[in-house]
Amino acid sequence: MVLLLLSSVLILSVLSGWGKIMESIFGFFFHGISGMILTGILGLSLIWTVLAFFVPINIYVEIPFITLGIFYFFKKKLYLEFYRFSKKDSILTACISLAILYSSSFYPYILDHFGYYVPTIKWLTEYGLVKGISNLDLTLGQMSVWHIFQAGFSGFSDPFLRINAILLIVYTLYIFERKSWVQLCFIPVLLLFSQSPSPDLPVITLSLIILNEVITGNKNIGLLFTFAVFIFSIKPTMIWLPLLIFLCSVLIFKPNYKNLIPGVIILILFFIKNLWTFGYPVFPIAIGDLGFGWRPNSEVLKISSQYAVQKTYDMQYTYEEIQNFSAYEAVKKWLTLEGIKSKINILFILSLALFSVFTCIKKKKIISLICISLLIKSMLVLSFSAQYRFFIDVFFVIFFVLFSHFSKKKSLSFFTVLSVLIIGILSFPELIRDYIPSFKPGNFMTGLKKEQLYKPSAYQYNKFETAQVGNLKFNISTDYPFNFDTPLPAISSGYIVDDIEAEIFPQQIDAKNIKKGFIWKNLTPLQKRAAEKVMNNIKNTDK
Question: For the chain, N or C: smaller number of CB within 10 Å?
Fold first, then answer.
């Protein structure tokens, strides 16, 4: 926790400095330290995304950017911006920040941390964006812009990968600067995402900031749309936000399509990144085939698609059973899943219905556009893979609009009670395991360790085996399905099984240079025997 505090002070200073630099390019999002920092996040993320095509985003990239940011922080005396807060608000902000740092010091427990976030950041810091990386491990094809941003600070500024905690502190600064008190109610829930560089936290916090700016009359459509597309590039399920800003620019504000150009450029960069790593414009959808030779095998994509359908039903039914559902059965079984997920699904439908009624009663154009955007997003998610993690942001948006009138006193009271509950769960996870056993992440929480008060908790495993199929020599974690600290190149055991079932296997485009990327090839008889030996070892380990 102490080291996180020092890391936060350093990174906030750097982001402030870079925000000042970027404001000369993008203009002011809004005046204040939080607006400056957010502009810095936007600028650094885009710069590092471009650089990642050519070089690893490692300490050699980090040092000059840190140095320049610190230089501008002191040259422009940006530290004076923090003195603009009243004494009372400064104390409250400090207390909330300490709660954030404490919560983020726990061991990561989200499984994607080990199978997706950390492996992605390892590839970015060692090789940058690698062509056709999805052929090695399909999950890596996402290469979220947020993980590129995290990679840029992972050398020495934030080796603990707690950038989400720092963003939560920025979010707190924004709330007090803009006096959007209802948003204090969201911080306790977001504490659950602070131990990992999960893209869910940035897209939720940033979308609520953009939404508040729109509702309160910020007419800088150019920057609003730029940030909206940036959020979409972090996680494409946030498509409702750029759609909302576009509709506002056409139906509420005077249309000026030149304002949309920066956002369109970011969108193009997003497509290029995905084409490079995945072979298609939007991960994981195999639409927009431009014939790139490094795109994933169609059979592997089919297996992934079937898995996504099963995840919709929390793996409680086989793919064949789901395919035989009638439309009525599909909806009924989704709403009556065993465990907590059925309650979340029901709440989701009820929330959309309530918000639609609220919209009809209010008859305000901006609220109507928010409702339309959310409904479009919801229909897309429901048709693709109706997992609650894809529509969790909808709850935050609806709560924000319905209760935006919350006073500072009410919001602080709500924040305090819920924070005590969430921090209690993180510190003593037996509570949630006993009372909500169907909340699976609770099984991976470890509780309070005294060491985390100095240094945030992090796992080390580093048990792996090395194998070779064709020209690809790779590592695979033993007795564990994920490769969060396995030396690169590493493949998850699940994808090895999928590849062998499809009778293909990833190969290096250049046997001497991993940076040149990966393609898939059909297995020769000799390669098939080698691959099956690896698969048998995996199955024996599972037993």
Answer: C
- Measured torsion, CA atoms of residues 45, 48, 49, 53, in degrees rounded to the nearest 10: 180
DSSP single-letter state for residue 107 = P
Distance separating alpha carbons of residues 437 and 338, to the nearest angstrom: 11
- Residue 275 confidence (pLDDT): 96
* Straight-line distance from the first to the last Cα atom of the chain, in angstroms, rounded to the nearest whole number: 39
Which parts of the chain have pLDDT scores under 50?
A: 543
Instruction: Evaluate the omega torsion of the peptide bond into residue 159 and state whether it is cis, within 30 degrees of 0.
Output: no
pLDDT score at 134: 94
Cα separation of 271 and 284, whole Å?
A: 12
Record the tokens describing residue 367, joined without a space. 């609220």
Q: What single DSSP character describes residue 405?
A: T
Q: From CA 489, how far away is CA 506, in angstroms rounded?
A: 11
pLDDT in tens, 119-171: 999 999 999 999 999 999 999 999 999 999 999 999 999 999 999 999 999 99
The per-residue pLDDT for 542 is: 52
The two three-digit tokens of residue 183, written as one number: 């948003």
Is residue 404 packed enough to be buried (19+ CB in 10 Å), middle (13-18) or exposed (0-12)? middle
Question: Given the structure tokens 């602070």, which residue do they identify?
Answer: 194
User: How far is Cα 242 from Cα 39, in angstroms, rounded to an integer?
Assistant: 17
Q: CA-CA distance, 352 to 368, in Å (whole number)?
A: 13
487-494 own/partner pairs: CB under 8 Å, 24+ apart: 488/122, 488/123, 488/126, 488/127, 488/514, 489/136, 489/514, 490/119, 490/137, 490/464, 491/136, 491/137, 492/115, 492/137, 492/139, 493/538
Rounded to the nearest 5 degrees, what angle is found at the Cα of 43, between the Cα atoms of 269 and 165?
110
Distance CA 185, CA 188 (A): 7
User: Nearest 5°: CA angle at 35, between 33 and 40?
Assistant: 95
H or E element at residue 348? helix 340-362
Other beta carbons within 10 angstroms of residue 442's beta carbon come to: 18
Asked, as a colleague might, if the bond just before 506 is cis with ω within 30 of 0, I would say no
Q: Which two tokens stand for residue 323?
A: 């395919």
